[in-house]
Amino acid sequence: MHWNIAAECISLVYLFIIWFYSRKSNLVPSLKNRLFYFCFLATFCAIGFNILSTVMLTYPNYSVNFLTWLVTTIYFIATPLMGMAYFFYTIATVFESQGNALRIMKWSSIPGVLYLFVVLINPFCKKLFLINAAGNYSQGPLIMTTYLIFYIYCLAAICVAFVRRAQVDPVIRKILTAFPVIAVLVIIVQQLYPEVILSGSAATCALLIIYLYLQNKQNSTDYLTGLPNRQEMLKMLELQTKKSRNFTIIVLSLRKFRRINDTYGQHTGDRFLREIGKFLEKTAKPRGLYRYGGDEFALIFRDASEDSIRGTVATLKKRMQESWTIDENSCLIPAVIGIVRYPESAETVEDLINGIEYAVVQAKKSKNTNVYYCGQEMLDAVRRRTEIVRILEKNLEENSFSLFYQPIISNHTGKYVAAESLLRIPDSPLGPLYPNEFIPIAEDTGNIVEMTYQVLEKACLFINRVTEKVPEFEGVHVNFSGHMFSQMDLADRVEEIIARNKTPFPKIKIEITESILAENTKIVEEFADRMQRRGVLLELDDFGTGYSNFVSVMTTPLDTVKLDKSLIWASMDNRQSAMMVKSMTGIFHEMGLQVLAEGVETEAQERFVCQCGIDLIQGFLFAKPMPEEDALAWILEG
User: Fold this and answer.
1) In the beta sheet, which residues pair with residue 510?
2) In principle, which of 101, 195, 233, 464 could form an S-S bond with 290, CB 3.0–4.6 Å?
3) What 3 state SS string does 239-308 have?
């Protein structure tokens, strides 16, 4: 018999195309996705060995009889294995959220294992096929077993999809039913026309359907909720902006959802997210709904009226103020809402996304409302913030931040004995940037950590320059943000920078605020202990604001307490405040601590801090923050 393998060769080409694009998809290695590649491998083996076997049987003079037997046997194993692989894929898809898919597959593999046994003993019993010494092929009495196994698994896949239809998305159910039906029909055609080899083509058709409608869909669909994902939303925004259509984006952001997972477990937390997704689907119809982030959902309204948008926002607010229930678990899930409009708020997709994120952040910060609209004015602020982030990153990359120094005078000697290092950006595309604007942004983005290390490096170099001419110079005060204490290697990095620059450790004084100490008490105390052993000094900054208490001062190894300028200023007009400053100074001295007063700007304030016995003074009355060269000259003259 002469066989026609043209369809198999074409299917092999399609198979390679599917493989190429599926590998680029970077799918999550879930059981279902692993089984997809198992289906591919089974199909590839079936087609590949089918083609090879057919060629060897057609040209027996050019092949070894033993190899022809081996190749044909592998083909007979792989062909029904395709049906079993696709059945397993159906099981994994239907039962993936229930955790019992592997157990079902274990028991349902019995027919396949029995058939494998028949194939393996076929060379001895010749019941499936025979290849004689001349290389001629003939079918055995049990040849129908091969097709029967394939039919059984395809029929089982259809039955599973039908029986479990209530638990499966209707679209997925139709696909799971369609691909085995198509495969069965193709195999029936092959039985009617045995000279045309189509078994691999049947499997390739099934694989193509699975990839196009299930696997490839994972690139655009959120795995947990089944909603279109962020990438699909971005594509939609690109399309809508190109068409210049008016639309509004509403983002619902859940607040502190991690507590739900911590309280009820990850699995229950996922179920809460799915429930919220289902509610939003009903609310959003017929409008677009997307899972924008882990705990964020986005609704896109095209050409919607103001009343419609307000109505939707009201519905969302009302529902999110009510409890959600999963089994016996019931809880409130607070949320905020951010709103942007095109083209009123922004004209590009990038600006829209920035506007969304800004609106959500502002809604979370606000104490008065959980709904925030990002208009043009707000967007201008977002653009400025984005530009500042770029400036910070550029300065970080080039290590080009300017470090200013404000001299600190000793109240006992009248000499400039130290200086505080202050970060400045005097020149940028936006003009001069001041710390009260760029420091919070640096903290939000995490850039503050590397910025602080660069400041410490520059401070070490400055100290080395000063002490060459003024050995008694006490050193430089360097401010540390709370973000620094989230770094596991903080102490190592600090010690490495100081040691590398050969700067005396005691000439570095690290300033921390009381809020940092209150929020990271144990971490700060451990860091302070280690720094103290190396001689690095610690100063408590801004004492007199926020968390002010003496317990934190008593339990942390400190060298200096800096009184906030508000205390000094208030003492000029308030006798009780003045008495408190004098008392605190005495207490700190009794504890062996130095006291530094900042913000001294008038002679009256200077006289007051002198009367209180304060050790160190810092303020505009003596010197403003100045560039390195000016500060060096100032200290040398002082």
Assistant:
1) 478, 538
2) 233
3) HHHHCCCCEEEEEEEECCCHHHHHHHCHHHHHHHHHHHHHHHHHHHCCCEEEEEECCEEEEEEECCCHHH
Q: Between 266-284 and 306-320, two packed helices, what is the crossing angle to 10 degrees?
A: 150
Helices 230-242, 349-365: axis angle to 10 degrees equals 120
Structural tokens at position 335: 């949320």
- φ/ψ region of 321 (left if φ > 0, alpha if ψ in -120 to 50, else beta) reads alpha
SS3 assignment, position 229: coil
For the segment 587-619, what is each residue's pLDDT rounded down to a tens digit? 999 989 999 999 999 999 999 999 999 999 999
Question: CA nearest 130: which of 45, 49, 73, 58?
Answer: 73
Tracing tokens 């999550």 back to the chain, one arrives at 28
User: Which residues make Cβ contacts (< 8 Å) with residue 462, sequence separation at least 6?
Assistant: 403, 405, 419, 421, 476, 628, 631, 632
Alpha-carbon distance of 620 to 626, in angstroms, equals 11
State how far the alpha carbon of 418 is from the alpha carbons of 265, 506, 550, in Å: 53, 12, 25
Could you read off the pLDDT of 129-167 as tens digits, one per residue? 898 888 888 888 988 888 788 788 888 888 888 888 777
What pLDDT, on the 0 to 100 scale, is given for residue 173? 73
Is the peptide bond prior to 440 cis by the omega test (within 30 degrees of 0)?
Answer: no
**Cβ contact 529:580 at 8 Å:** no
* CA nearest to 199, candidates 87, 41, 76, 59: 76
pTM (predicted TM-score): 0.58
Which residues does 249 contact at the CB level (< 8 Å), separation at least 6? 237, 298, 299, 300, 301, 339, 340, 341, 342, 352, 356
Residue reference for tokens 């919607």: 304
Domains (range + CATH), the chain = 6-219 (1.20.1070), 230-374 (3.30.70.270), 386-637 (3.20.20.450)
Name which of 190, 219, 200, 212 is nearest 10 in CA terms: 200
Angle at 484 between CA 563 and CA 477, to 5 degrees: 40
